[in-house]
């Protein structure tokens, strides 16, 4: 592999592909956390989205219907999460962990019923999966989120719910309604993220195929200070590190590959520790978890 | 009334007999517990082969088979223990990750018989099933070199562990036998057991290799392999499958598969044990015993010319006769280097 290969169209495409699932999931996390609901269940929502997407695309022979199903799959899990945390006021961290474990456990049950396999779906024909479309949709989702977050009343209410839930209630808005819809949107987007994994980056669902991408998306959200554009930038950065790591592997290079692999996490920890910007905006929504 | 009573009694007797009978049948049946690795029975590769061998034994030998999949490495020991505690006669662990667990449980349950694939354990009740992966890797390496005019060839492994290095070293030797100036690019998917189950990452690695001019990629990465086959299909290049015959997954894009007949090893072990001939010790499967081979079937026969086939068969004979000694990473490594 030659050096000029590092910056090339192929590299750029590789970065964009890697960004896609992360961006969907971290935008989902943004909705949830901005409304004041801690969201560590992104991994489970992605897994369920990946499974629903691969299953629907396999049965209906359409990547688009699969992608739609992925969104609904994520949303179903998100609704369950909402039921426990918003209605029954369960601890959000504990519930989130439980949801992640649940998703891993439910998947084999579903594949057993539908395909008689223990956890993997059959691989999709090339016509039944995407070649680039999810990346475009992720970009559209980003644009809509940026507009909604900055320019609309809904965006303000969303931030309000996370910053000062009591004041929001006093002003006559329903906190529950805002948080419920945010969590559902979160599930939808994270499900799309999972769908772009199983329908685009791979060609089937296989157990645990998210491989920690849900948590990486959460890290991107935190690194991006809970704001849409910086969060997208963080996703891009993580994807660059990953694509770079792939290209540096097997080459004699000045940096050990393992170091490049830990870069995104290292940057996140530094960012969290507060090295970057002590301003108010860098902090988490104040009402998070309340 | 009386008639009804006799009828009921008759029924009762019949049911008692039935229950008794079923218990006898159950007691007589040979029970096998199969602990699969994290890839699961549908990885279409290593674990699928083991499952195939065990289900064949179930059908043909009438044994009772129960299989479980290790959801994570920490669960393996418990899975073995729970099989050992129940009345299972033979417990088979699939994969290098299970060596420690089998060693420990076999010691605690000396009356039970165990088998381990891809690991060596010295115990009176454990049979170790090892494969000479380097021999098959050598052959598919030679074929890859024949199919690659530019000599740019790739290898993608799951984790960077000695077992996978063994594939890579044999593969490279095979390539160099045909094309001395060939360039091999070696990549590994990850550093944790997620590497066996990350097709998205595997596909990115494969695309990166194909984009840099690589023409054939040999993959030894469990369920991640599907990502490499997807990349081969999209880029219209060639890939080489592993463990099971994977030629059917993407016909025309999978040059061949290096067969590791875990199915035969598992089946034979179950058969021996059921017939009362369980023998502890190490069994090695290589080209000679057909435990290692390369796959030619209707899905890839058009990709391999008669000339290439005969050349491969010649190499195969030379390996079996000992004329060619394929470098073995395990042996290389046991010697002090430098």
Give a structural overview:
The complex is a heterodimer of chains A (about 290) and B (about 350). Chain A is mostly helical and about 290 residues long. Chain A has one domain (about 5-280): ABC transporter involved in vitamin B12 uptake, BtuC, CATH 1.10.3470. Chain A contains eleven helices and no strands. Chain A has helices at about 10-35, 40-60, 65-85, 90-115, 135-150, 155-165, 165-170, 175-200, 215-225, 230-250, 255-270. In chain A, helix 1 (about 10-35) packs antiparallel against helix 10 (about 230-250) and helix 9 crosses helix 10 (about 230-250). The radius of gyration of chain A is 19 Å and the shape is globular. Chain B is an alpha/beta fold. Helix content of chain B is about 45%, strand content about 20%. Chain B has helices at about 1-30, 45-60, 75-85, 100-110, 135-145, 160-180, 200-210, 225-235, 260-275, 305-320, 330-335, and strands at about 30-35, 65-70, 90-95, 115, 125-130, 150-160, 185-190, 215-220, 240-245, 255-260, 280-285, 290-295. In chain B, the strands form two sheets. In chain B, strands 2-1-3-4-5-11 form a six-stranded parallel β-sheet, sandwiched between helices. Chain B has a six-stranded mixed β-sheet with strand order 7-6-8-9-10-12, sandwiched between helices. In chain B, helix 6 (about 160-180) links the parallel strand 6 (about 150-160) and strand 7 (about 185-190). In chain B, helix 5 packs antiparallel against helix 10 (about 305-320). The model of chain B has no long low-confidence stretch (mean pLDDT about 90). Chains A and B meet through helix 1 and helix 10 of A and strand 7, helix 7 and helix 8 of B.
């Amino acid at each position: 592999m030659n050096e000029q290969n590092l910056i090339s169209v192929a590299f750029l495409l590789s970065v964009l592909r890697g960004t896609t699932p992360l961006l969907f999931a971290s935008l989902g996390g943004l909705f949830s956390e901005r409304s004041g609901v801690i969201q560590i269940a992104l991994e489970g929502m992605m897994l369920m989205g990946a499974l629903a997407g691969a299953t629907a695309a396999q049965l209906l022979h359409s990547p688009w219907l699969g992608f739609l199903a992925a969104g609904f799959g994520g949303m179903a899990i998100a609704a369950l999460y909402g039921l426990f945390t918003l209605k029954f006021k369960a601890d959000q961290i504990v519930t989130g962990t439980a949801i992640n474990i649940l998703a891993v456990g439910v998947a084999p049950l579903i594949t057993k019923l539908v395909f008689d396999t223990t956890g993997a779906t059959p691989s999709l024909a090339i016509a039944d999966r995407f070649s680039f479309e999810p990346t475009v949709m992720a970009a559209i989702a980003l644009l809509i989120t940026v507009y909604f977050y900055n320019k609309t009343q809904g965006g303000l209410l969303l931030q309000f719910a996370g910053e000062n839930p009591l004041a929001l209630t006093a002003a006559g808005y329903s906190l529950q309604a805002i948080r419920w819809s945010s969590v559902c949107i979160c599930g939808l987007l994270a499900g799309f993220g999972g769908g772009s994994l199983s329908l685009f980056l791979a060609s089937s669902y296989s157990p645990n195929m998210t491989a920690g991408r849900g948590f990486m998306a959460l890290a991107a959200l935190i690194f991006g200070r809970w704001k849409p554009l910086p969060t997208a930038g963080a996703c891009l950065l993580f994807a660059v590190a990953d694509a770079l790591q792939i290209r540096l592997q097997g080459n004699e290079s000045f940096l050990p590959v393992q170091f490049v692999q830990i870069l995104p996490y290292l940057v996140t920890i530094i960012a969290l520790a507060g090295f970057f910007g002590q301003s108010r905006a860098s902090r988490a929504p104040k009402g998070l978890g309340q | 009334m009386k008639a009804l009573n006799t009828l009921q009694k008759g029924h009762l007797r019949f049911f008692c007999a039935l229950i008794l009978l079923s218990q006898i049948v159950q007691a007589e049946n040979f029970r096998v517990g199969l602990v699969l690795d994290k890839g699961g029975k549908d990885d279409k590769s290593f674990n699928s082969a083991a499952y195939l061998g065990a289900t064949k034994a179930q059908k043909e030998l009438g044994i009772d088979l129960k299989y479980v999949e290790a959801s994570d490495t920490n669960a393996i020991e418990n899975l073995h223990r729970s099989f050992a505690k129940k009345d299972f006669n033979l417990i088979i662990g699939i994969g290098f990750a299970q060596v420690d667990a089998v060693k420990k449980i076999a010691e605690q349950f000396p009356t039970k018989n165990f088998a381990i694939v891809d690991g060596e354990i010295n115990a009176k009740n454990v049979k170790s099933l090892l494969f000479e992966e380097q021999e098959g890797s050598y052959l598919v390496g030679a074929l890859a070199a024949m199919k690659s005019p530019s000599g740019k060839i790739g290898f993608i492994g799951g984790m960077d562990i000695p077992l996978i290095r063994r594939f890579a070293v044999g593969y490279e030797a095979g390539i160099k036998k045909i094309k001395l100036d060939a360039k091999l690019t070696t990549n590994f998917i990850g550093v944790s057991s997620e590497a066996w189950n990350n097709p998205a990452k595997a596909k990115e690695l494969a695309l990166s290799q194909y984009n840099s001019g690589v023409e054939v990629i040999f993959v030894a990465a469990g369920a991640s392999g599907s990502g490499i086959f997807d990349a081969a299909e999209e880029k219209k290049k060639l890939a080489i499958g592993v463990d099971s015959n994977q030629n059917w997954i993407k016909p025309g894009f999978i040059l061949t598969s290096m067969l590791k007949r875990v199915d035969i090893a598992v089946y034979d072990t179950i058969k021996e044990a059921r017939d009362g001939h369980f023998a502890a010790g190490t069994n090695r499967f290589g080209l000679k015993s057909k435990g290692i081979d390369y796959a030619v079937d209707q899905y890839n026969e058009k990709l391999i010319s008669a000339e290439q086939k005969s050349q491969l068969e010649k190499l195969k004979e030379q390996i079996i006769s000992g004329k060619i000694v394929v470098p073995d990473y395990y042996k290389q490594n046991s010697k002090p280097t430098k």
